[in-house]
Amino acid sequence: VENTVSGSLIIDPLTIKATTDVKAQGQSQKLELYIKDGTAYAKSTGQNEWVKSSSSSITAQFENLKKIANSEQILEFYKKIAKDFKKTEENGNYVLTYTGSGDQFKDLMVAVANASSGNEVNASAFNNVDFKNVTIKLVVTKDYTPVTNEVNMELATKNTPTPTTMKIKQNIQYSNVNNVKEINLPDEVKNAKEVAADTQKSE
Questions:
Q1: pLDDT band for position 120 (50/70/90)?
Q2: Which DSSP category does 118 fall into?
Q3: How far apart are CA 151 and CA 99, in angstroms?
Q4: Bridge partners of 151?
Q5: What is the pTM of this model?
Q6: Which of left, alpha, beta for 26 (phi over 0: left; psi -120 to 50: alpha)?
Q7: How many CA atoms lie within 13 A of 107 on its CB side?
Q8: How far is CA 22 from the centre of its chain?
Q9: Contact 79, 103 (CB under 8 A)
């Protein structure tokens, strides 16, 4: 599965413009998304019109992006392994690289899960996962503005009758950092049709 996301993000107030392309088994799907003023706007492959929703249950999922960006747990994890990063210079930037494996990455997965879900995730959820061949490459300018972030990781299940493995590759490229002041909605997005959120009423 190949998942490519491009766009712009303003943390506060949360404003997003994103295009997601997913390719799997010869098929491709495209999702265009805006989040602005507490409203989500979307259009996906096969749709001719934009739809929107102001449901808090939908927009709250994207609010969790703030938690990931500011997670103390994630920061603490990187502090733990900071001494194992190697620093070099390349094209006038600092390059930080790390190679390792082991259960310490369970801490990172728990931190990300806690931040993104908004719920408390127990470390035992990853007891049957073996983290192997993890490489991290972070490129920053000399004033520590991020340029790229590459993570490669191999996961293997353990203590199961049919062990499986998964390879994850993430490549993030940053541009125009701290210079995106506003994200404007095109007219076709402004005219999106409101979609009613599913609600359940208890009696």
A1: low
A2: S
A3: 10
A4: 136, 170
A5: 0.74
A6: left
A7: 15
A8: 14
A9: no
